[in-house]
Amino acid sequence: MDWEIEVDEEHIRRERQKARELRKQNWWKNRIAKGICHYCGKTVAAKDLTLDHIVPVARGGRTTKGNCVAACKDCNNQKKNLLPMEWDEYLQHLQEK
Q1: In the chain, what are the domains?
Q2: pLDDT in tens, 58-82
Q3: How confident is the model at residue 4 (pLDDT cuts 50, 70, 90)?
């Protein structure tokens, strides 16, 4: 199956602006205060957590509380623009360690 969808630059610009605004909200501050990566479960300093879109903006995702999670930099860099089903293989590998 081909999961690629056409996403225009305006969508990306708009969603990145929403992400900047979301990071200012108490909801996000409470999320990162826990210091836990959504993907690997590691405890890291709040300043080392990044906002990750579960369904990436570049793949049509939106900046909503339901689509944004706190992720460590390693996981966020590994995930890049993968969809959840594509990312699942990597997560299974982490659980085996």
Answers
A1: 9-96 (1.10.30.50)
A2: 999 999 999 999 999 999 999 999 9
A3: low
Please tell me the pTM assigned to this model.
Answer: 0.83
What single string gives the DSSP state of each residue in the chain? --------HHHHHHHHHHHHHHTTSHHHHHHHHT-B-TTT--B--GGGEEEEESS-GGGT----TTTEEEEEHHHHHHHTT--HHHHHHHHHHHHH-
Token match 């369904």: residue?
Answer: 55
Structure token pair of residue 35: 């210091």
